[in-house]
Amino acid sequence: MTDAHVHAPPSNLTEPRGDLCIRTLAMPADTNANGDIFGGWLLSQMDLAGGVAALKIAKSRTVTVSIEAMNFRKPVYVGDLVSVYANLIRVGRTSMTIHLEAWVVRRKETQPILVTDGNFTYVAIDDDGKPRVIPRDGAAISA
After folding, report:
1. Sheet of 113-125, strand order
2. Are 104 and 37 contacting, i.e. CB atoms less than 8 angstroms apart?
3. What does each C-alpha distance from 111 to 67, 83, 86, 107, 117 come to in angstroms?
4. pLDDT at position 5
5. Strands 95-105 and 61-72
6. Cα 24 to Cα 80: distance, rounded to the nearest angstrom
7. Rounded Cα distance, 64 and 96, in Å
8. In which element (H, E) is residue 62 found?
9. Which residues does the chain have with pLDDT short of 50?
């Protein structure tokens, strides 16, 4: 883990916002050279969770087109229970932006800790991989 979390906007959140989309356990195979959970693994878990939320909204396949405003706030350790929550920010004609928060509960603790958050943009696609219109009733996830 780098000192990047020092530059993240402060967060006084004490509990997750949005819908729970994925929960998993951080395992030894997911560590970096320092023994902490690899940031790329956490990013992939967040993208999976965002894909779950995007599918629910678009009612079709989606693709990730951008990730912005990522804040790696705290390290994730082996044994942490990682939960990712999705909160819909914007729905356009074919795209949507979802704010994702990754929270952990550490072993022998009960209070969740916000470790990473960011905005992910997804585009709804048809069977040919072309952008398709998102149904207006699709915005069923937390707003």
Report:
1. 19-25, 81-91, 95-105, 113-125, 61-72
2. no
3. 28, 13, 19, 10, 18
4. 42
5. unpaired
6. 9
7. 10
8. strand 61-72
9. 1-6, 138, 142-143
- The CATH-assigned architecture of domain 16-131 is Roll (3.10)
Q: What is the pLDDT of residues 44-70, one digit of tens each?
A: 999 999 999 999 999 999 999 999 989
Which residue is associated with the tokens 């069923």? 140
Task: Please tell me the total number of residues recorded for the chain in this structure.
Answer: 143
Both tokens assigned to 131:
């952008």
The structure tokens 């949005």 sit at 18
Residues 6+ apart with CB under 8 A from 89: 96, 97, 98, 99, 119
**Domain range list for the chain:** 16-131
